[in-house]
Amino acid sequence: MDNSLKLIGPFRQLLTLDHLPLKGALTDDQLEIIEQAGMVIQKEKILTVGKFTTLKSDYSEAEINELKEDFVALPSWVDCHTHICFGGSRAKDFAMRNAGKTYLEIAEAGGGIWDTVTQTRKLSLEELAQRTIINANRHLQEGVTTIEVKSGYGLNPEEEIKMLEAIKKADSKTKADLIPTCLAAHMKPRDFEGNASEYLELISNTLLPLLKRKNLTNRVDAFIEKSAFSPQEINAYFLHAKELGFDLTVHADQFSIGGTQVAVEFEAKSADHLEASGDREIELIAKSKTIAVALPGASIGLGVAFTAARKILDKGGSLAIATDWNPGSAPMGDLVVQASILATNEKLSTAEVLAGITYRAAATLNLSDRGVLKGGMLADFNLFPTESYQEILYQQGKLKPSQIWKRGEKI
Length: 411
What we know:
- The strands form two sheets. Strands 1, 2, 3, 4, 5, 14, 15 and 16 form an eight-stranded mixed β-sheet that branches. The chain has an eight-stranded parallel β-sheet with strand order 6-7-8-9-10-11-12-13.
- It has 16 helices and 16 strands.
- It is an alpha/beta fold.
- Helix 5 crosses helix 6 (157-171), helix 6 runs parallel beside helix 7 (196-214) and helix 7 (196-214) packs parallel to helix 8 (231-243).
- It has helices at 52-58, 91-98, 103-108, 113-122, 125-141, 157-171, 196-214, 231-243, 259-265, 279-286, 296-302, 309-314, 335-346, 350-356, 359-364, 390-394; strands at residues 2-15, 33-42, 45-51, 62-66, 72-75, 77-79, 144-150, 177-185, 219-223, 247-252, 270-273, 291-294, 319-321, 381-384, 403-406, 409-410.
- The chain has two domains: 2-75 and 370-410, Urease, subunit C, domain 1; 78-364, TIM Barrel (Alpha-Beta Barrel), CATH 3.20.20.140.
């Protein structure tokens, strides 16, 4: 027996998500589904997939993990937009918003992003790391094995570094892969005496080079919005970030337009939110290499329209779906629940949803080694206790995976 080889199966169904395009609409009949399938794993990676009986014969030296119940195997989930490193709670904000208070009224009452900044700054690096681990492990138990995590609640060089070091520490203590992103350009901090451009210049010249030297992240994000930074203000910041070699992503078109244009011009990996995008913005992103990221959790939390996912796909764009898990607008943090609700409202096929939370989401993070079940890819996959993959979205997140495998190990 070769102890480096494991054969797992038989699965009632194995969905490879192989041979699907990065861009455009998808139909369920494009899904490659192997019945009575097996998977051969060598260390962290998939060696091959196919019929279980054939693999059992071809790899007789492998350690066999034979399943006695019906399972559907899928690539594990990728959440490409979260803010799970934070302090405090914004439950009061949520109650006030549902009672009819405006964003400005909530902010004036001490709520909003600045409240989270204040609470996050109070925590030590260790405390922040521990909270991030707890959130990451909850996500992991629901089958999300790759999680993007943003800073952005520090809003000065020292506190932003603390956040990113906490994310790095958390990454070493959880089985999930945490992908850090610098969101120091979340808003101009209230305790900064200069204007927005001067704040961006400060973090551009002091923070970004430090992040490179400390190897804390290779991703930079910015919130382009009337309450945050204008396209004109962010231009020099993004130019410098690109010169330093950072990948870019953008909080775009959440309440007003402008962010998508910047994302496309700077060839950002993704433009996230897009709830306010019109036909021009949809055309722009559909024709570009930038991936649109829908964040249905924010729409649910704020009671606003969903991203025009159907239009983006029909125009030929690429669509990922993420939770935006954060303490303010999207506290739920359940990827499949949110994706299922988006699918119902935007009439997305199951194939489009599955692509949006696996390989298309991985592409926004510049990761080409996951999101598909085939030879050479990471052995990251979920097993659902069901006879049909259609049950997963049908049950709108209530059907959880009973086995989660990360890098070839059952967690």
